[in-house]
Amino acid sequence: MPRRSSLPSQILALCISTSSILGYQWPSPQYDALEGFLYEGRRFDGSNMASIQHPCKKRSGTQASIGAEWLRLAYHDTATHNAAEGTGGLDGSIAFELDRSENIGSGMNASLQDFVSFSSKYVSRSDVIAAATVFAVASCGGPLIPFRGGRIDALSAGSMGVPEPQQDLATHTEIFRRQGFTQEEMITLVACGHTLGGVRSNDFPAIVRPSDDSTTPNFEVFDTTSVFDNTVVLHYLDGTTSNPLVVEVNQTLRSDLRIFSSDNNRTMQSLASPDAFASSCQDMLERMLNMVPKGVTLTEEITLLHAKVSNAQLTLEKEVLVFKVSLRLTQAINTTVSDNRTVKLLWCDRRGSNRECLGHTNTALPAAQNQDEPQISPVTSRLGYYFVNYQFAVPIDSSASISMFWFEVDEHDGTTASIHDNEGTGYKIAQDNVLYAPTLSSATFQRGEDSVKTYHIVAAIRNGATPSHVYLNAFDSAMPGYAAPLNTSVNLKLNNTITPIQGYSFYSGVVQDLGLQLTVDLQSVVDGVTYMEDYLQTFFLNTDIPFTPSTTVQTTIAAMPGTTSNIATIPSSSSGTIPDRAMDFWTLAMYLVIFTISMGTMLSCSLPSL
């Protein structure tokens, strides 16, 4: 009689499967974009925003803490929040409020310039500000702040209401109450905000006296360390602080002293423990970043994907239909990738006698492999990982096409090979009726007062389909001066100057853009059905695209995603096995478990969240 897995093992496997289905699944373009920005610190072309500040750098020229400037900008953006009315909050309106005395400081302008080119369709300007705060705190040794995306950007100034040093305690208390903070939380948030940076004479000459050399401002720091720690608290409590907002001769400007002492120092004493300070700051800064106007729903927390699929694209290059995709794997810092590791891409045909892998599975090895430095994001390095990337480029028979793919990672060390198959569902290619052809697209740059870029975007439409409408939606929020985003639609027309290739004809259209990160969505309407390619990058077009030669395709017999051999990775117990005659009962029981979990009942699986 064949062995059967124990009931607890089967239920645990079901919990894993169901929990995964209810969590992240590819494709999830917004999650993927936010996750990539947070854990890789960069945009599609490799430009890295985190590296502007990391590791806990000072700004060239002013020598101010960049992390402190990024943190201050985020608070000033959120400070106009009215918790009762649901207005204001982290919405990017700070870009239109720098002419106010409450937002004085060259660091505010410098920070906005740091951020201007990194927003996109799925990472809003205010998401960039929030992520910058996470970067800054992590880079300088502070706690890792949970991050969510989905903020909606304001396109004009909001209400006034940022606290200023000369205001009295009652005014400050009311401002923080309006934001949704208690007195204790006000004290904590100010202490957390003032562990980095200080006060410059050219921003606040009444607090820090200007130097005789007008080109070199004086700078007085809040504490004696340049990292995110509780020294600002300890020095305040032991009376050795040099915090200018505590010891300023003019008592009217001692705003930190009034706030810190407002409860007879009880809160400051509670922050004397480094662990308590880190925990309290993590909580308060997360709350600050999540203060948004009513009607805005933030995403789930963006957690690290240990196996991430990116840049999946069926396209035409050098008159060949190719499928390109990358697999990013985490690797623990101070460990190396085994030379014996093999990573395989596997996929099924969409059409023909071998559709959905009826006869065999196609497979190929990577065309290229590279490793990222751990420091590309302070969040990833603090978690203890770096990334290993495997790029695939395989030729595809256009008559067969591709419907689904997955990966096998084998360390060849006696352990079972890992299967990455989108939690048993496979990574599905939704359609092949409209494709992006970046190698046939191009961009021209017209220098001048407006610096307009003209993009000639080419889409490939599969022959046999008769589209009634082919068009693109263009979006770019990375606009100079934080101008209103480009958000427009352009009709694409059949382009007879491009010879049909591999069963595809070509449509093209023109987009003009002043921004720095244009993305397009291609759409084709056939018989009332809309086929779409979403969030397509335009950084590399035509000859600027690095060419990756296709690798050799082989065929094999492999288990399909979701089949028993791919799911049953939980080792069975040697006892408590289920006799054959009882299998129908237990199978029914397990289906009931799935139904119960999906209905949101109290059944709990003690598994880490995704």
Essential attributes:
610 residues; alpha+beta; Peroxidase, domain 1; Immunoglobulin-like; 3 domains; 5-stranded antiparallel sheet; 16 helices; 21 strands; 26% helix; 22% strand; elongated; disordered N terminus; disordered C terminus; transmembrane helix; oxidoreductase; Peroxidase; Ccp1-like
Protein model, in words:
- The chain is an alpha+beta fold and 610 residues long.
- The chain has three domains: 1-24 and 321-431 and 554-610, no CATH class; 29-289, Peroxidase, domain 1; 440-544, Sandwich (Immunoglobulin-like).
- It has helices at 7-22, 29-40, 50-53, 66-78, 106-115, 125-139, 169-179, 183-193, 231-238, 244-247, 255-260, 266-270, 274-289, 378-383, 564-567, 583-598, and strands spanning 198-200, 219-221, 307-317, 320-332, 342-348, 361-364, 368-371, 385-395, 404-410, 418-420, 427-428, 434-436, 442-446, 452-462, 469-476, 486-491, 493-494, 504-513, 519-526, 529-537, 554-556.
- Strands 5, 6, 9, 10, 11 and 21 form a six-stranded antiparallel sheet that branches. Strands 12, 13, 14, 17 and 18 form a five-stranded antiparallel sheet that branches. A four-stranded antiparallel sheet has the order 3-4-8-7.
- Helix 4 packs across helix 5 (106-115) and helix 4 (66-78) crosses helix 6 (125-139).
- The longest helix has 16 residues, at 7-22.
- The radius of gyration is 28 Å and the shape is elongated.
